[in-house]
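Q: How do we represent a protein-ligand complex in a form that can be generated token by token?
A: Start from the inputs.
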Amino acid sequence: MTEDFNPELLPQEFVKLYGGSVEDVQVYAGPARINIIGEHIDYNGGKVFPAAIDKYIYVAVRKRQDSKIIYNDLKFPGTYTFDITDDFKFAKENDYANYLNGILSIIKRRGYKFECGFEVLIVSNIPPAGGISSSSALECGFAYAVSELFNFGISRKDIALIGQQSEHEFMNVKCGIMDQYIIATAKVNTAELLDCAKVEHDFVPLELGDYRFVVMNSKKKRQLADSKYNERRSQCEAGLAEIKAAALPLTGTSITNTKDLPDLCSLTVEQFDSVKSVIKDEVILKRVRHCVTENQRVLEAVEALKKSDLKKLGDLLRASHKSLKEDYEVTGLELDTLSDTANAQDGCIGARMTGAGFGGCAIALVHKDKVESFIDSVQKKYTEVVGHDAGFFACSTSDGVFRLK
Ligand code: GLA
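Then emit the structure tokens for the protein with alpha-D-galactopyranose bound:
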């Protein structure tokens, strides 16, 4: 029922479940995202280039007379009941409700007062744990719904920061700001060049001519993804600490000594080459190299897009995947098969994994007339190599979190 569920019908489902009238039900949407390029550098002060896409999590809400909070999801069985006065804590058995409780705990901590409880009904067409940020779509869609329902007027940037804080403190995933930020602030027909050090963005028109982004879902369960993600983050911190401790002179930017580096992505590729010998551990060296070169690729990709040089953009997508495979080591058989097979197809000018990796999704830039044959061929090869099928869809851009009704 969920893949093609019409969200206009969500208020009816809501009153079937909770009673009352559809008039009082408000519906909000949180989009999924792709990251075009700039992977694993948002938490290294880098620049990233994501876009929100037309897959959504819909959150219907209505205030209650009492202080209860009730969550239901059309897809996942079970009702979760809490109280707005609860001291929310992560509990494994609370499943998706943890994302919602995490958001509430941060909103309350920021001093917003709830005068009553509320009911929630969720439905989503975003593949869960698929690497296109279903969890951030839920967090930000829900935070926005609550903010609007209670007239808190929380800014879009703060919606993103609340989502990230909840991931860090409640879910124990030390994510960067990219996913929540794009989901909260996106504009249709654009991607955002997001400066993660300043937490500021520029919109860049996403003009792809006859090409479309196709999302390819590996359907690989992302086992231990959170711990591997946090491990990558620590490795980057170790690399930065080593470079800073060496206190080497730098030329070419306003930072003249490595001890003053705020983050890895403040190093240019040339500067990295001049200081890399201080990093003793081969693995840490590879992680740092990925960050520095990926940041450079993002800047080149945005320039290429502005000049409508899609071939160059495609080359950069491929180079990004290679770096994520060899230096950052977050791809694996599934994502490599998707990306390599996609890159070999007629009509595809570039493909790479998107998001955290370790499973999840890849994206490919494909000519609109070749999308169908592209999907058939990649599916065939993927199934042969991996032993199960992948999911595919061509996507369009979307606005960030919005009210549907
Ligand atoms: C996940 C995180 C983001 C980002 C990507 C990798 O999606 O939530 O902050 O680090 O991985 O680029």
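The longest helix spans residues 282-306. The mean pLDDT is 96.
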